[in-house]
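Our collaborator T.R. sent over the components below with a one-line note: 'Predict the complex.' Nothing else. No constraints on interfaces, no templates requested, no preferences about which chain binds where. So this is a plain run: every listed entity goes in together, and whatever single assembly comes back becomes the starting point for the next discussion.
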Amino acid sequence: MESLIAVLVGVLFATGTYCLMRRSIVKLVIGVVLISQGANLLVFTTGGLLAGRPALVPADGVAPPAPFGDPLPQAMVLTAIVIGFGLTAFLLALVTRAHEAVGDDDINAFNNTDT
Amino acid sequence: MNEYSLLLTLLLPLVGAVSLLLGHRSLAFQRAGGIVFSSVTFALSLYLVYVVDRADFVVIQVGDWQAPFGISLVADRFSAVMVAVSSFMGAAVAIYALAEIDEARLRKFFFPLYLILLFGVNGAFLTGDLFNLYVWFEIMLIASFVLISMGGEKGELEGGLKYVCLNLLSSVMFLAGAGIIYGKTGTLNMADLAYNLSVAEDVNWVISSSMLLLVSFGLKAGIFPFFFWLPASYHTPPSAVSAVFAGLLTKVGVYALFRSYTLMFAPIFPEVQPLILVLAVLTMVTGVFGAASHFDMRRILSFHIVSQIGYMVLGLAFMTPLALAAAIFYLVHHIIVKTNLFLVSGVVIRLKGSCDLAKVGGLCKSAPWLAILFFIPAFSLGGIPPLSGFWAKFALVKSGIEIESWWAVTAALLVGVLTLYSMTKIWGEAFWKQQPENVGAGPLPNPVGRIAYMLAPITVLAVTTVWIGLFGEPLFSFAERAAAQLLNPQEYISAVLPANTEVLP
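Returned assembly:
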């Protein structure tokens, strides 16, 4: 399972990078979103993937029985997803406004502030 | 009692932002609130420095969950002085913003966003947990994203888009690096991480994740070769905003680099030291060449940020007590001076309508007070004695000579000369030569507030850099104590993790 997810993370990063390399600002947004989802999945996988083994402490025990899922990466990913959503929403709004202002979808037209 | 000094410096900007949002109808309240909250934060941060200097560490375990399970907030001398100088700058720029930020931007919640930016920066300095550092970065970034693009003009949106995209990529790398470190070590608490790595037999397996973090922090700090977004975006928003960005945001990246290589990744530092040294020198050199080749005041200043970041990272790369003290001194000096220069460029725009050196001139005659106020920070940045920049550069070069890193020292000295060259270019073009005919854009048609509001913080910052230059001994000895603390990560670990003290090697 982990290796499958690892391949998926790689595919997400690769597709995202490809989209970033394109010259359209819409694909720029898609690329950023794909890469950030790839990172989320990567963090999620580092905690180990265990199905149906929650980290619940039995009533008389001090530690959950041995192979248990780690809740911390899941909490981290949840935070990262929320932050990612917020930033994506902002990025979309910004791209819309920038598209109106510059009047072009082509990143080559966004060179007025370049040095 | 000591804990409150830390907590209040963190919470006050947040309380300020919320109350300004509640009272968003009154512009007078926005203005007054922005100044009051940032000034009180500054006063509290001075108290934090005082407390930390006496107690060495102030640690809060949030919710009383002991580290490494809870979230730790830690202030050591380095983070305390960073909080203090950033709050100082925050208060100064808030006063400046009275005159520069127009009503439209005030109605779009300029001051609440500004306070949230300070909140995020202070949090990033004070956190003791890697994932929380990520979250603080995001808080700071979200506020800065809106601040850089809120004007809605073409240049701002364009610069904002570049800024946003590169910073998002940097955050992604940070998240991936933090996640991989968690997978490898099972902890994200910085002290616990440092402890685990210091007792591990083989630490080379964290080099990959430390490199991810190096790239991420390097992107935020604007070191070579990740700096290209910085001069493409920093000159687009109003000067009050770009002054904060120039003074603060790159320094948070530098702070994170210092924190990770003096604390968390201290055991693998010898492996990455040559790399950091090369990156620092290349940052200095490329930044100053960029500055020398440009002809717009704010673009020159943006490139200078890059080259000055190189000096600070050079201090990290040397990693001797003197070099780290010099780097901390340099950080303080640079935040004050660079903010000041951007604020001066805002006044130039106000008076002449442009920052293009081909279009402005004659400021020496028409505004001699401004010429003096530009002269002081510019030559402080160039490293002319007795201003603060001289002592920062002097200590850094001395530490480089001590460890006989000749080529880095040579580069640092040459870059200093070139910095001075590009500063004299601004001086000669904008202040000394005659106002060119037929191209003058003229003063801005509808200035917002009185120019006294702009000059007061500029004067205060200029006096501060002279003051640090003339009576810099207390600050430098403080920086030396902070550097000693940084070089001794065991103290930090035992302050945050008291349970591990007795098993330390």
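Summary for T.R.: Chain B has one domain: 2-488.
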